[in-house]
Each structure stands twice: as C-alpha cells, then as structure tokens.
C-alpha cells in the first residue's frame, strides 16, 4: 500500500493504530510497551554446483550435501545468538534438481529470519552470509553463491508513554481485570510500515477472541493447543460477541483519547448489541 502511493491519495495520519485477535478471553484487550511484533526477513540463497555427473563425485560438487551442511550450521548460529535474545532462522524451502536429470546445477534455500533486537538481526544476516560463503568455498564450488534478503516485516515496538496513556483509558472503561499484557509468541506483521513511512507514532494491541469457559477448560486440562485453534487455522472461529463490540469500543476509545474527546464513556444506542 505504501509503495503504491497510499499517502499520495490520503492525508498523512497523526497516529496509526491497529489491533489483532489472540487466544485470550473474549471481552479483554492486551496492551504492552516495547516490542510486540518481531521483525522478519526473507533470505533467498542459490548455491551452484560444478558441471559434472553425480556418478563422478571426485570431480563434482555435491550441492545438496553443501546445502545440508549450511542448514546445520544455521542452527549453531541461532544457538549462539539466542543467548542475547530471541532469534530464529527457519528454512522455509529447499529445492534442488529436476526429475529425470542425473545432475543438479543449483540448490535454492529460502529462510525466514526473525529477531526483536535490531543488533541481533544484523548479526543474524551477516552470520548467514558468512556461513554460506564459507561452505561454498570449502566445497570447491567455482561460482559464488547468490544471496538476497528483503524485509518482510519490520520490528513493531510500542512507545511506553502512549501505551500507558491508552492503557489507563482501557482500564477505566473495560475494567482492570480485562486489560492484560499478554503477547503471542513471536508474532509478525508489517503494520508499522504504515507509520514509519510518514514518521508517525503508532500503537498496536491485541483483542481476546475465545469463550472464557472454553479457555479455562483448555488450561485446566492442559489441552490448550488441542482445544484452542491458532490464529490462521481454518477452524478458528472467534466468538463474535462480545469480541466484535470490544474491538469497536477499543478503537473508539483510543481514537477519542487522541482527539482529546474521551471522557471515560461511550455512547450506545438503546437496544443495540454493539
């Protein structure tokens, strides 16, 4: 949207806000300062084999073996850097060879690379480059690997002052017991691009979607993963009420707060469930 000229078509926002469903009890919101959405990079690697038949390993480079060694070394890099904070190197794809051809010209690896700390992200990307080039050189490959990386989603980190102010308004309206600080395990969205593109402040929070009774039973029986579908599961059906109302009210409260018109109350038409 930003690359396609979003802000050439609409006014620049004073603040950007968004919310996302998570598996906490419906009717609650979750808001915390600091990192809430992890950064994610896509790294594409192409390794080149030497020309030759696999039946003559003495004069060829087994590029599939090289790719396997590289992936194993990524685990070591991940282990070392994780001592300083969360990092993840996940091989999403690996492709090599074609059916019917007795030789492999190249192997492709696609990585999903995540981190909360910008410095660890830089170390991850540099470490990946170093490992790939080292293993390609050791294998005797005559052509250097091709490595490209692109940001799939930047880090989203809530400002402490904004979080505290909106959090206080949420607590006043929804009640302290319904305003949490739960954050999913390493979620990722490109939301903050909408704000960073125009240097606007932003705030991102989460919204409960699960029936409280169902959630309690899942925790009590230690069957949370079995009983509560993940966000993108085809069987994930958020509890419509009061999830929908809570989401609309949360956005309304935050908007009115920043407009300076929030007085702790929201107008609701009589007989309306929203």
Largest sheet entry:
4 strands, mixed
Number of strands: 10
> Widest sheet: strand order?
1-10-2-9
Q: Identify the CATH class of the largest domain.
A: Alpha Beta
Determine the fraction of residues in helical runs and give it as a percent range. 25-40%
- Helix vs. strand class: alpha+beta
Mean pLDDT: 91
Low-confidence stretches: 269-274
CATH superfamily of the largest domain: Zn peptidases
The dominant shape is elongated
What fraction strand?
A: 15-25%
CATH architecture annotation name of the largest domain = 3-Layer(aba) Sandwich
In short:
This protein is of the alpha+beta class. The chain has helices at residues 6-9, 63-81, 118-139, 160-174, 193-196, 212-220, 224-227, 240-259; strands at residues 16-25, 29-30, 34-37, 39-48, 87-96, 106-115, 146-153, 156-158, 179-180, 202-210. The strands form 3 sheets. The chain has a 4-stranded mixed β-sheet. The chain has a 4-stranded antiparallel β-sheet with strand order 5-6-4-7, covered by helices on one side.
């Amino acid at each position: 949207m930003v690359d396609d000229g979003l802000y050439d078509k609409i006014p620049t926002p004073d603040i950007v806000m968004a919310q996302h469903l998570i598996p906490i009890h419906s009717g609650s919101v979750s808001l915390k300062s600091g990192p809430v959405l992890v950064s994610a990079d896509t790294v594409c690697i192409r390794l080149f084999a030497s020309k030759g038949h696999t039946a003559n390993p003495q004069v060829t480079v087994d590029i599939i073996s090289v790719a396997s060694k590289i992936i194993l070394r990524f685990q070591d890099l991940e282990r070392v850097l994780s001592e300083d904070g969360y990092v993840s190197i996940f091989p999403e794809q690996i492709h090599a060879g074609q059916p019917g051809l007795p030789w492999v010209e190249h192997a492709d690896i696609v990585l999903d690379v995540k981190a909360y700390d910008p410095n660890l992200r830089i170390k991850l990307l540099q470490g990946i480059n170093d490992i790939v080039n080292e293993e390609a050189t050791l294998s005797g490959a005559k052509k250097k690997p091709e490595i490209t990386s692109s940001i799939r989603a930047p880090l989203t980190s809530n400002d402490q002052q904004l979080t505290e102010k909106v959090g206080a308004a949420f607590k006043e309206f929804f009640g302290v017991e319904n305003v949490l600080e739960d954050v999913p395990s390493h979620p990722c969205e490109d939301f903050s691009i909408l704000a960073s593109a125009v240097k606007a402040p932003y705030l991102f929070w989460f919204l409960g979607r699960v029936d409280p009774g169902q959630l309690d039973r899942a925790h009590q029986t230690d069957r949370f993963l079995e009983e509560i579908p993940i966000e993108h599961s085809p069987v994930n059906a958020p509890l419509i009420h009061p999830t929908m109302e809570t989401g609309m009210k949360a956005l309304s409260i935050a908007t009115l707060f920043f407009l300076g018109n929030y007085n702790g109350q929201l107008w609701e038409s009589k007989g309306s469930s929203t």
